[in-house]
Amino acid sequence: MAPLPTTLFDHFETTVNKHPDSLAIADFKQRASYQDLFELVGKVSRYLLESGLKKGDRVSLVITNSVEYAAVFYGIWAVGGVTVALNTQAKAKDIINWVNHSEAHWLFVDERHQEFKAIAAEIKSDIELISVGRGTSDYQTEAAVSWQQILDQTASEPNISLTPSDLASIIYTSGTTGHPKGVTLSHGNLSANIDSILSYLELTEQDSILNVLPFYYSYGNSILHTHLAVGGSLILENSLAYPHRVMEKMASEAVTGFSGVPSTFALLLGRVNIRDYGLTNLRYITQAGGAMAPALADKLSSALPDTELFIMYGQTEAGARLTYLPPTMLKEKRGSIGIAIPNTTIEVRSKEGKVTQPGETGEICAFGKNIMQGYWKDSEKTAEIIKNGWLYTGDLAHTDVDGYLYIDGRSSDMIKSGANRISPKEIEEVIQEIDQVLEVAVIGCPDEMLGEVIKAYVVLKKNNSLEKRVIQRHCKSNLALYKIPKTIEFIEELPKTASGKIQKFLLQK
């Protein structure tokens, strides 16, 4: 496959010219062709230009997967802006913290977002709030600009020159309170990674995918860009609450692809009989977002014997993807996360920085054009994981004699639950706010469905009592639902080192 043009927006324009009438995105309310989407992109870019956006300015968005999401995202790029796509499940204080940290001066929010009024009440006066939707919610009256005002714009033609080194996106991975961690990805980073993914998945304009992953995550983000880069179609399904409907849509839309995290497939396999649905067009499935248990991969392969299963591994700091396991090696290399994606180099290194021998555990390190520029406004944290151009992932692994990688664990405390990466520190800080709590430690516990679930160990102040439901209610008021501990255990004291550092590995045992 020939390399992509300089930026993903260049390729999107090429696709529009080649396949203007082809389906780009179908969401719950509309089916937009590439020409339809391009016109909407032009309306967003005209509004931003007339609002004073200059090349490099950040624009944040809190939008559910939809035609509008893609239009706003590519509309920002069309005029040289930097996208800051934020978690739609986050609370207002987290959203505002990210917006302020990125120094964005525009914020697009779904008009039906449950935190809309809270965001409008707290946001700085110099940040323009734009509601996204059809004016069917009372919330949109709180916005400075309505979506209808965007639709009333005359579409503008892109007139900005972008280079591979220009900043394209900031993706926040953790640290919603105090010290946000924003991954900065250039147009070159994203284009290189998408090019590699297209190469091993062999995607073309004939491909279509049923997408259930949020676009604001790097995994969902890569699904959006890969399909818009080749002229493929995205069929959006934003809920897994009714698995049979998901399967029926996969069959009725005759999609060629489907992607998920381990919990996605555990849910589908547990709730429906996949063999009951006509999925003769389903060419491939991809999995990332946490380690998939070999037993689950076996079940999935058995349910879809004629569909290729790609086990993948990556990090937001690498644009999305770092390794993949070729489907032909699924049985021979059971449990492996595969080999480096095209145009990326992977090494497993010891603490001394030496490449490990087969079977020896070390840290996964990666080098390539897809590696991020750094963390936004945090050179110190950047220097901790980017050394001489190499990304030190913090993930522990070993190779076999053929060079295939096997994950051994994570050196980081980050919890991966479903599609979410969760900072224990944030949850600990919220629980610590409760008067009766002396100390708290939050860890991830293994779970077949989600990969990991959140558990909190709580030490109460002397002569105090507290019900678990009080803690969960407090968490629910201050955290997104996926960050609320599933289990809480009261203990007398937390295990610590002589210097007072909590030994979480003992809690995990």
* Mean of pLDDT: 92
First CA to last CA: what distance?
Answer: 48 Å
Structural class, judged by helices and strands?
alpha/beta
**What is the CATH homologous superfamily assignment of the largest domain?**
ANL, N-terminal domain
**Number of separate helices:** 15
Computed over alpha carbons, the radius of gyration is 23 Å
As residue ranges, the low-confidence spans are none
**How is the main sheet built?**
9 strands, mixed
Residue share in helix: 25-40%
Number of strands: 26
Share of β-strand residues: 25-35%
- Which strands sit side by side, in order, in the main sheet? 2-1-10-9-11-12-13-14-15
CATH architecture assignment of the largest domain: 3-Layer(aba) Sandwich
Query: In CATH, what is the class of the largest domain?
Result: Alpha Beta
Structurally, the number of domains stands at: 3
Question: Which term fits the overall shape?
Answer: globular
Which topology of the largest domain does CATH recognise?
A: Rossmann fold
